[in-house]
Design brief:
It holds the Pfam family rve_3. GO terms for molecular function: nucleic acid binding. This is IS481 family transposase. InterPro entries: Homeodomain-like_sf, Integrase_cat-core, RNaseH-like_sf, RNaseH_sf. One of its GO terms (biological process) is DNA integration. The protein is elongated. It has helices at 3-12, 18-25, 29-42, 63-78, 85-94, 101-110, 177-191, 223-231, 247-262, 268-284, 296-300; strands spanning 138-146, 152-160, 166-172, 196-199, 234-237, 318-323, 329-330, 332-334, 337-339, 347-348, 357-363, 366-370, 377-382. Helix 1 crosses helix 3. A 5-stranded mixed sheet has the order 3-2-1-4-5, sandwiched between helices. It is α+β, with helices and mostly antiparallel strands. It has 11 helices and 13 strands. The chain folds into 4 domains: 3-47; 63-110; 138-300, 2-Layer Sandwich (Nucleotidyltransferase, domain 5); 318-382.
């Protein structure tokens, strides 16, 4: 028996007063009075609870606006672009329609446009790193994209870590070390040099984990590493097999590939045109949740940019630890050139010192080779960048 029916019958059948019923069942006297008079007018229909829905909803979003929200959702999704509430809100604002993010979300949910997902860990538990200033840190990576004929193309990007502004995005048959240095230099000429870079451990970015690579004692860094060292730019590399270190650019690849799936390209030229248009949209139009729902291009210009920490003395000493090879030689990169002859033959020290660990001190065009334990002088050189093979000073 429904609660309303009990209250009404307590008055009509038991003959209790309104006050007695209210005291007995813990309700107000006004409710009992109203229910009794409703029963007198409607009969047994008064037993059922009435809807609490208001007769009018003057603040309800107009149907044309609700229809526009759904249309924008479908349009953006069809184009392979982000179609979340923040993006829809930005597009509506450009059409002079102001709607809150929560209202848009409710409209999408009510129309079955939101796929329920299991509850994730709270955002308050996230520990996110973001550079404090533009050009303080650039992230770079490259990914694979297939043309309509299944030709594999590689796309390289340079992204500012501060507010996720995609500074450079180009397609190449293969991303080589030369492509990395060329795209980095072109981007720096347009936006200024960064204070630091962050990449994975691909050979085009670093040779630190390769045999003969930087830090292994028997070789130097690649062209990109040398370029950064000459400019005073700090080089950072993620841990091997830990992709989350470069999370911002990895997230960008996910968004980009969703867009490319809706815009397949027949040629590398057509792909580049699509990439240019998408980069403009992502930088100038789409608001990003990770940066307070601002557009990256707007945020990138808000505060002064960071710059590399260049040496105060351009003739600063360079110190490199190395190991003499079996032929009594080491290689040395100087003024952007690798001094060598044939296959890795460079500065001649002598076979008697093969496999000896040494310290190479470079100042201007002078190089001095000493042993790390005793400081014994093994050789001195006056470097000539026009020649591959460098002879010891007499």
């Amino acid at each position: 028996m429904a609660k309303y029916e009990i209250l009404i019958k307590a008055v009509t059948l038991q003959g209790m007063t309104y006050g007695q019923v209210a005291a007995c069942y813990g309700v107000s006297k006004t409710l009992v009075h109203k229910l009794h008079h409703r029963w007198l007018a409607e009969g047994d229909a008064a037993f059922e609870p009435r809807s609490r829905r208001p007769r009018t909803t003057p603040n309800r979003t107009p149907d044309p606006v609700r229809d526009r929200v759904i249309a924008l959702r479908d349009e953006l999704a069809h184009r392979g672009l982000d179609a979340g509430a923040d993006t829809i809100m930005e597009h509506l604002a450009r059409e002079r329609t102001l709607l809150s993010r929560a209202t848009i979300w409710r409209i999408l949910t009510a129309n079955g446009k939101v796929t329920p997902r299991p509850q994730k860990r709270p955002r308050s538990s996230w520990r996110r790193f973001t550079a404090d200033r533009p050009n303080e840190l650039w992230q770079s990576d490259f990914t694979h994209v297939a043309l309509t004929d299944d030709t594999d193309i590689e796309v390289i990007g340079w992204l500012d870590d501060h507010f996720r502004n995609m500074l450079h995005l180009t397609a190449h048959r293969r991303v080589t070390g030369r492509v990395v240095t060329d795209t980095f230099t072109a981007t720096a000429h347009e936006h200024g040099y960064p204070a630091a870079t962050l990449t994975d451990n691909g050979m085009v970015y670093t040779t630190r984990l390769a045999r003969g690579g930087r830090g292994r004692g028997d070789g130097t860094g690649n062209g990109f590493e040398t370029l950064l060292a000459d400019l005073g730019i700090a080089q950072k590399n993620g841990k091997p097999f830990k992709r989350t270190t470069q999370d911002k650019i990895e997230r960008f690849w996910k968004t980009l590939k969703k867009h490319l799936a809706a815009h397949p390209a027949d040629s590398i030229t057509e792909l580049q045109t699509i990439l240019d248009a998408f980069r403009t949209y992502d930088n100038d139009v789409r608001p990003h949740r990770g940066i307070g729902r601002k557009t990256p291009a707007f945020a990138y210009q808000l505060i002064p940019k960071a710059t590399p920490t260049r040496p105060a003395d351009p003739n600063i000493w360079r110190v490199r630890y190395d190991t003499i090879d079996n032929d009594g030689k080491i290689t040395l990169r100087h003024t952007g050139k690798l001094l060598h002859l044939g296959i890795g033959i460079g500065i001649g020290i002598g076979r008697a010192h093969s496999r000896t660990e040494i310290i190479c001190l470079v100042h201007n065009n002078n190089a001095t080779i000493i042993t790390p334990n005793t400081g014994e002088l093994l050789a001195e050189f006056t470097l000539d960048p026009t020649k591959n093979y460098q002879r010891k000073n007499d």
